[in-house]
Amino acid sequence: MNIQLIDTQTRTDVRPLIHTQCPANTERIGSQGIGAHPLDVLPGNAQQSSMTHAATIRGIESPALAAASALQELSAQLRDPTLAPARFGVLGEEYAAAWLARRGWSTLSRNWHTRYGELDLVMLDPERTIVFVEVKTRRTMRYGSPQEAVTARKRLRLRRAGVQWLLEPEHRIAHNGVRFDVISILLEASGPSVRYIPEAF
């Protein structure tokens, strides 16, 4: 499992996090629950620079540049202290979708409802993997890290919801696999800090 921490407000590079340098509540989500886990860089991040600096052709903005612009706008909105919790959560999901789009991902569904609950994001990554992304956004660490909210019960419901999504006829697209990821967003003084957890459960 790989976890990456990116400060999209000040850098476009990726900082690897080593286990010995992790904060006390840096954790993973896996089949055995939540626990300490070493962190490293997600493969393929070397491509971020070229994506970030993709050129516009005849005034048409590339998806990567459009996503970068959206990230700046959403960052400003997330810092509004008067935001209601529900709106704050929605903006967090939008931020996560733009963060992934900047890296070449495509959105298949947003806020898809099932009897088991809602799927925040259903994405197709550059390797054509269908990825169900659970997004958790927090202003503080007062009640723990955002990803701690993805409990065992929540994970079970998300798996069942994912199966329902895949069974829908309109969702039968060519793909190379399926997985569940988590994006944890913590609002810091400099802006949203993203922790991406692929294959979270």
Q: Can you give a write-up of this model?
A:
The chain has about 200 residues and is an alpha+beta fold. The protein has one domain (about 5-45, about 60-195): Trna Endonuclease, Chain: A, domain 1. About 25% of the residues lie in helices and about 25% in strands. It is built from 4 helices and 8 strands, in the order βββαααβββαββ. It has helices at about 50, 65-80, 85-100, 150-165, and strands at about 5, 30, 35, 105-115, 115-125, 130-140, 180-190, 190-195. The strands form 2 sheets. It has a 6-stranded mixed β-sheet, with helices on both faces. Strands 2-3 form a two-stranded antiparallel ribbon. A hairpin with a 2-residue loop joins strand 4 (about 105-115) and strand 5 (about 115-125). It is globular and about 40 Å long. About 30% of the residues are buried. Mean pLDDT is about 75; it is low at about 5-60.
List the helices and strands and how they pair.
Elements: E1 4-7, E2 28-30, E3 33-35, H1 48-52, H2 63-78, H3 85-101, E4 106-114, E5 117-124, E6 130-138, H4 152-167, E7 178-188, E8 191-197
Brief summary of the model shown:
Helix content is 27%, strand content 27%. It is of the alpha+beta class. The chain is globular and about 40 Å long.
